[in-house]
């Protein structure tokens, strides 16, 4: 699978933080993603009260949407600004506390307790810290991960999933020789080999 010149491209944590600081967040959507609405039944699979994980969550509006349905939401995001903006924009009171297992990490939790957002690198998380999940909404995470880190990312995600977990993944399709990413092009063949 040819991903063109993208395979060696690296976007640093600092670059992501700068996107949030400068408001260069075209990847953020103000409305619930139509594909999540369309495939919600696949994610839930007839179950209620799920623990749903949002990797590289930003300030995704879907977190509140699913929490309002009675699900527990856990997200991870490197930008503290994005996390605080999420709670502010939804008028959700929250508490902030350190995460003892992860140096420098903070956890922001809605006072209702059903939304917990970790501010740290996703690679600092483990199931011993955040537990396992019944569902994952990956809209913009796999395609944002540096191509050389995909295997590491997917290996982590698999350790965070319960046996009967549902994983909804949104990718983008385009000619990787014409766009340097992110979002990065992830061919279907690679998705199959990564997730098995």
Automatic annotation (TrEMBL):
| Gene Ontology CC: one annotated term | cytoplasm
**A single GO molecular function, which one?**
thiopurine S-methyltransferase activity
GO BP field: methylation
List keywords of the entry alphabetically: Cytoplasm, Methyltransferase, S-adenosyl-L-methionine, Transferase
Which residues are the signal sequence here?
none
Kindly give the SUPFAM superfamilies that the UniProt entry links to this protein: S-adenosyl-L-methionine-dependent methyltransferases (SSF53335)
| Subcellular location field | Cytoplasm
Catalytic activity, as annotated: S-adenosyl-L-methionine + a thiopurine = S-adenosyl-L-homocysteine + a thiopurine S-methylether
Enzyme Commission number, as recorded: 2.1.1.67
Residues reported to bind S-adenosyl-L-methionine: 16-27, 56, 77, 121-122, 139
Q: Which domain of life is it from?
A: Eukaryota
Q: Which Pfam families match?
A: TPMT
Keyword Transferase assigned to the entry: answer is: yes
Family label:
Belongs to the class I-like SAM-binding methyltransferase superfamily. TPMT family.
Please identify the protein, giving its name as recorded.
Answer: thiopurine S-methyltransferase
Which species does the entry assign this protein to? Answer: Ramphastos sulfuratus
């Amino acid at each position: 699978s040819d991903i063109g010149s993208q395979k060696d491209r690296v976007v640093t944590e600092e670059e992501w933080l700068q996107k949030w600081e400068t408001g260069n967040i075209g990847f953020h959507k103000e409305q619930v993603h139509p594909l999540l609405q369309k495939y919600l039944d696949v994610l839930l699979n007839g179950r209620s009260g799920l623990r749903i994980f949002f990797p590289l969550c930003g300030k995704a509006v879907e977190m509140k949407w699913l929490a309002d349905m009675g699900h527990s939401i856990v997200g991870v995001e490197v930008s503290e600004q994005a996390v605080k903006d999420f709670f502010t924009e939804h008028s959700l009171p929250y508490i902030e506390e350190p995460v003892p297992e992860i140096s420098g990490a903070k956890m922001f939790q809605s006072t209702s307790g059903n939304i917990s957002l970790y501010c740290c690198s996703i690679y600092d998380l483990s199931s011993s810290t955040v537990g396992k999940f019944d569902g994952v909404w990956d809209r913009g995470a796999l395609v944002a991960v540096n191509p050389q880190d995909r295997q590491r990312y997917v290996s982590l995600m698999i350790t965070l999933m319960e046996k009967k977990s549902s994983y909804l993944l949104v990718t983008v399709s385009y000619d990787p020789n014409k766009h340097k990413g992110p979002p990065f092009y992830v061919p279907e063949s690679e998705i199959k080999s990564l997730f098995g």
